[in-house]
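Quick look at the format.
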Amino acid sequence: MKSVQKCNYIFIPIVVAGVLIGHSCTAGTRPANDTVAQQYIHKTGIIQNQAVDEASGMAYSRVNPDLLWIVNDSGDQPVIYAVGTDGSDRGQMHLDDAENQDWEDLASFRLQHSAYLLVADVGDNQAQRPFVILYILKEPQIGNGRLTAASRVNWEQKIQFTYADGPRDCEAVAVDTTDRKILLLTKRDRPPVLYELPLDLAARTQTQVALRLTTVETIPPVTAADITEDPLFGRFRSRPTAMDISSDGKLALVQTYKYAYYFRKTEPGSWAATFAARPKTILEPRLKQTEAACFGPDNLSIYITSEKRPAPLYRITIQKGDNL
């Protein structure tokens, strides 16, 4: 297995094993016998808002240019942070009548001519919560400005749900507006398990049961090298920490602590069949716990950041020629 060379920043794409990539990297290894996406990696900035100290979910704005929405992990107030794609502080908003018990992901989507955010309070490390919660709210339009410290927002819908086969820990949630589904991918199951909920905004409050779709055995497991490089944390490196679906509903992104992977949905096809196919690997810089990731507005790039400070922002652009 070929080691990735240490470097601080690379502007010019390089060729590794016949695949064109631009890789800003730290210590790590390339995946063996895997298809690697053509990509360019660009560090766009560092998150400036000191309150964003445990970024666990991120979504690209559907109405504001060059804006990302980010949430912190458990223990924070029910606050959604506005961050420029350059890391600049664009303010924050308090989600009223909500609690951050364990916010683990964030999704953005458009439906019926409106833009929405979905906050996923679905973390459950011990798999013992009697129910978990999704909050759906309309995305505010702030243009090139910023939110004030007093900004507040109400949720449009609160979905309280359980899993059909018992509690699960989950950090990866995505919205598919084409099929009107909310997808959830578990973290601690080996292999991870994919569940779905209906996306229906008719009722303000809902009680649902997430249905089990399939196990996802196509995300590469940890390797002996992962354990050797990090004896304490290496065994967790293949676990899903974020998920997103492209705005056209054709691609699914799954982030792990090691790399990201994208799956292309067949036409016609189900998400169970899509996740049964081998994904393409997106090589990434080694960050301190990559738990927040999302597609960019063109569906040809993704953004990632770290759960630990200082939290750099990276944009990874996938080339159009890569069969997207």
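Next, a different chain entirely:
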Amino acid sequence: MDNLKYNYLDDYLEQLRSKGKYSFTIKGIKNELNVSDEAIKKSIQRLKKKSRVELIRKGFYVIITPEYRNRGVVPPILFIDSLMKYLDRRYYVGLLNAAANYGAAHQQPQEFFVITEKPSMRSIKNKKLSLYFCFKKDWSDKDINKINTETGYVNISTPELTSLDLIYYQDRVGGLNRVTTILAELVDEIKPDKLMMTLERFNYIASVQRLGYLLENKIKNFNLANVVREFLSDKKYYPVLLKQQKGKVNGKKASNFWKVVPNIEIESDI
């Protein structure tokens, strides 16, 4: 009888794959198959030993198809939307992965960055997967694109929001040198009118100052720098360090419009 139940699970996963899905949940199995918890547990253990499934979060698994068996897991872009719906979280794919989607990366990032709301969630870091969750208080859906993948639509930040997020999360993505290199490629995708609208919705003005400073002084894109300058022209803002660090500016003066104190020498590949 157990073998029959195991075969039911195999058939169930085949049906999911025929619908273009790469993931499943314990709850979904229970809703579809009339089998016991113990039978489901044994079936999943058997498939896991054969490297056919992998646990991502409690109750949420991915189906590993033959082309991904050597990696041990399918690319996150194929299951991230299903995972975040399962966790009931707003999200978008951002930072290095969003930039790479717009052609601003020398190679596909090994890490996968997802922006979501609090409460905090543990990131997933192992030999098979580097899935990082970054947290933000809020964002506007107007700054999110939906891209079509083979499993459906995935939320991803626009080039304009991506540029600001890269600066805000600079320490999470390898520092300002890496950020500046990526921005230098990303600017070709940033539209001045859309940038202005995104700036109006973005809640972290220090990142806006740093973006303007880099656009003008390091990337030399004066068109976009002037958009940021126009945005800040009627705003109240204070001196900030170019590289984020704890503590205050300590009386250092910023002799530029952006009120940015350059406490790091940028050495990007631009």
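The longest strand covers residues 130-135.

See the schema section for token definitions.
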